[in-house]
Amino acid sequence: MDTLPPADQRANHAIVIGASVAGCLTAAVLARRFQHVTLVEKGDFYDESAPRRSLPQEHHVHLLLSRGKQVIERIFPGFLAELETHGAEVADLGHDVKWYQGGLWKNRYRSGIRAHYCSRRLIDNLLRRRITREARIQVLSGARVESCEFDDSDSDRKITGVLVDDGGGRRRLPAQFVVDASGRGTRLPDWLEQAQFGTVERTVVQTDLGYASRIYRRMPEFASNWRVLLVLPEAPAQRSMGVISPIEDDRWLVTTGGWFGNFPGSDPDEFLEALANLPVPDIYDVVKRAQPLSDISTFRMPGSQRRHYERLPTWPRGLLAVGDALTSMNPLYSQGMTLCALEAECIDIHVDAALRGELSYQSLQRQLSDVVESAWQMATTEDQRFPETRGKRSVSIRFHHWYGARLARVSGYNRRALETQIGVANLVVDPDRLFAPGIVARVLRESVFSTKGR
Q: Which of 113, 276, 334, 442 is geometrically suited to a Cys-Cys bond with 63, CB 3.0 to 4.6 A?
């Protein structure tokens, strides 16, 4: 991953639109191929504390899954140690998380799968600091991309650069390679349609999702009992979740949210009431005694969204779309940052072949779509547990709802099922392992016999 291809295989200039997690990781990958990489960020790239309008969900709980951590560590060696140095809490997801799911509290076992808990701002700040150390990457802070430019001279159309407004007027940035990592509000579909590449199809799964978060001073008396306290609903009857997550500087970040309007606003009493109305009162019982350190931040989104760039009849050479510009999913499943890392890894693996002309950029964009496919199917299948979610419930989806509900209970008392569930959720264990004979037998038994007294 660290080896640069021969000079004759490298183009001169690449542009990445957006300094998101996807944008920073992609820029680092491209800096190993291109002599110059420009990262265009519409906000203040160097401000490490002010709220960012382009990332309204930054004030809520984020979890970087194990697979995502592995990829980021390969791109930026030592990144996880930096997180820990700056106060990230490391927790075993089987032992250190007190976890309510499927109507019961799970027994706790050491799984060997550990998560780094911290604020989203800490992750972004450290990624951006890494970017500033990359000699080949130039950051245009406070600049907005107004459009993409394409070469219309032949049938093999290619991108030739972007038009940027950096506050001092518009100017053209020529490039042989452009990656759109500008987020859910990307304008790329409009630019492609205006350039007569066709209309980008879009799939939206409406869930009227929202959540609210507040920072509290951590209470040391709970340190020996749990590091993370997580309560998940039994869908569809229950529609709200809650979590207490440790972050740097000896603080807790408390988030509660839900589907189809089941989430509070910014009023403190309403926030506490929402915690009290969770399936069990444990989070409320802790938080009502804790010292708040912030106002309540809220976030709302209509649902998951996927843009099908791979379905366009033609695709410009030298262009790719990643991150939320490609797929934006229900954040309660904690997949977003990890998918950004996997997309950067996909580019890292295949971009040399594209630069040599051995792989079309349309094929590479299709591979990026394939990266998100399984996560998209998982998230949207789970969202379809609620009757308000539109979409056909196939036999396969109904089976996964039935099996998943019982697996959630089995993993509450069976160590193998819990470890497998955690591994699959963190994208480090093959999902087929959930259907191992021993686990299937437990699930079938759960469906037949009462769990009373267990």
A: 334
Cβ neighbours, 10 Å, residue 254: 26
**H/E run at residue 14:** strand 13-17
Neighbouring-strand partners of residue 257: 211, 241
Measured CA to CA, the distance from residue 116 to residue 64 in angstroms comes to 7
Which pLDDT score, from 0 to 100, does residue 453 have? 43
d(C-alpha 68, C-alpha 60), whole Å: 19
Give how far Cα 233 sits from Cα of 106, 282, 390, Å.
Answer: 14, 14, 20
Compute the distance between CA of residue 369 and CA of residue 350 in angstroms, rounded to an integer: 14
How high is the pLDDT of residue 52?
Answer: 75
Please give the distance of CA 366 from its chain centroid, rounded to a whole number: 19
Residue 56's pLDDT is 67
| Alpha carbon distances (Å) from 77 to 46, 72, 83, 105, 427 | 22, 8, 12, 37, 20
Beta-carbon count within 10 A of 302 CB? 12
- Tell me the sheet residues that pair with 159: 150
- Give the count of beta carbons closer than 10 Å to the beta carbon of residue 261: 11
Residue 181 contacts residue 18 (beta carbons within 8 Å)? yes
d(CA 287, CA 291): 8
**Degrees, nearest 5: CA angle 244-246-249:** 140
Is 267 in contact with 273 (CB distance < 8 Å)?
A: no
Nearest to 230 by CA among 430, 424, 425: 425
**Residues sharing a CB contact under 8 Å with residue 377, sequence separation 6 or more, in sequence order:** none
The alpha carbon torsion through 421, 426, 430, 432 (nearest 10 deg) reads: 30
| Other Cβ atoms closer than 10 A to 353 | 14
Q: What is the pLDDT of residue 51?
A: 77
Can you tell me the distance from the alpha carbon of 7 to that of 256, in angstroms, rounded to the nearest whole number? 51
Averaged over successive runs of 10 residues, the pLDDT of the chain (454 residues) comes to 41 92 98 96 92 75 92 97 96 96 95 94 96 97 96 81 92 96 95 96 94 96 94 95 96 96 95 97 97 95 94 96 94 90 98 96 97 93 92 91 95 96 93 96 85 45
Q: Which of 374, 419, 329, 437 has the alpha carbon at shortest distance from 99?
A: 419
Question: Do 326 and 309 contact (CB within 8 A), yes or no?
Answer: yes
Interior CA angle at 321 toward 320 and 324, to 5°?
Answer: 165
Return the pLDDT at 384: 94
> In terms of C-beta density within 10 A (0-12 exposed, 13-18 middle, 19 or more buried), how is residue 87 classed?
middle
- pTM above the 0.85 mark? yes
